Amino acid sequence: MRNLKILIVEGNLREENQSFTAGGIKTHTESLKDSIDYFTDEIDIDVVNPSSDNNINKNIKDLNNYDGMIWGGSSLNIYNDTIEIRRQLDFMKECQKKIKNILAICWGMQVAVTVAGGAVKKCLNGAHRGIAHRIIINENGLKHPIYKNKDPIFNTPAFNFDEVSTLPKGAILLSSNSINKVMGIHLKINETNIWGIQYHPEITYDKMISLIHFRTEKLIKNKAFENKNEINKHIEMIRAENKISNTVSRMRELENWLNLLKKN
Q1: For residues 99 and 63, is the Cβ–Cβ distance under 8 A?
Q2: Can you list the domains of the chain with their CATH numbers?
């Protein structure tokens, strides 16, 4: 039996990833690879960066060859409408025509929703800063394979200041919490099934804590926290959650998506 073939789309600019590496933090693509390896080593992975790769069309000759695609997170804001963001939107359009199974994580979901006719805006009810509390799976979500064996109410790693404000036509809402109404969706475009989540099952709480340290000055400047003392208290809360978190339960959505590919 052949290995599954997956495309990972890196949402961050190359410069952002270079700063991560310099700070001793894994890129989102590296975190995704680690998480996939936790479940299986029988997958061939290609990586592409639509914003920063100059020869993307030469490197990715046939999107139809992929069993699935995972589009990860980013520090970009989709409403800024830069050339780098437009490149990602254009590439997502092609992926939605040719790849039958897409797992769209955080920024990835925002890109997928925007291409499909939805809208993304700055969060009105605050932000997720390393953790999202009390995500509630609704009736549709409880029936959906993305949440198979998932607790109906759960906490999870998350980092987002933007949210899906308008769902595309035909999208099905699967989960919500008090910060973001849209935390999980299923969207079908022609023959493409998109599972979208506004959080990061593939990223550890330890990495989220590292990201908070890495972004301390920016987070205070942007009023996400009042001061370093508030940040330290927030980090202690995440550490307490980390102690009771179960690795497989945290990554259940990724496991279920990989199992979907194996069945197809």
Answers
A1: yes
A2: 4-263 (3.40.50.880)
